[in-house]
Amino acid sequence: MPDALHGDTVRVLSGWDAPDDDQARLRDAYLAHLAAYPDGTYRVRPEGHVTASAAIIDPTAGRVLLTLHPKVGLWLQTGGHLEAGDASLAAAALREATEESGIAGLELLPDPVRLDRHDVRCGGPNAWSVHYDVQYAVIAPSDAVPEISAESLDLRWFAFGALPERTDDAVRRLVTQAAALAG
After folding, report:
1. How many other C-beta atoms are found inside a 10 Å radius of the C-beta of residue 140?
2. Residue 161: other Cβ atoms inside 10 A
3. pLDDT in tens, 41-95
4. Is the dihedral of CA 182, 7, 16, 36 positive or negative?
């Protein structure tokens, strides 16, 4: 039986105004996944599960904080799995951003920015799963000093227009849209 977090995720995605047709199709695929799997918000679902992430931005300085992901080896936004204690999808994104950045006082923009579905190793060295990632943006205080957590090899601020080579197009699109929303 679906729980409150599943219900919140369905509500958020159902009400989300996708920025383009590709994102609308992806949203519909997320909703179909959640309709098929009452536990589709949790990592126990081997066919895939919802994750929450956030681009941490400092719009005043025109920069984004990215984490060097230890498993993937790329500079990515903060994020991860939903947990039973998360009150909502947005709360999960904010929790992950706070845990992975060490920054207190992050301000979550209320609506998702983008969706990104990708295959990842999850749950073991040979275990692959689909992450149905819901991407948010959070605003960092202008004096924020990040602290590297155990979930990151490095944390670094990058100018919006000067993202590192070792990132991917999904991060570039997220940062572009998050910067536009916060500006």
Report:
1. 25
2. 10
3. 998 887 889 999 999 999 999 999 999 988 889 999 999 999 989 999 999 999 9
4. positive
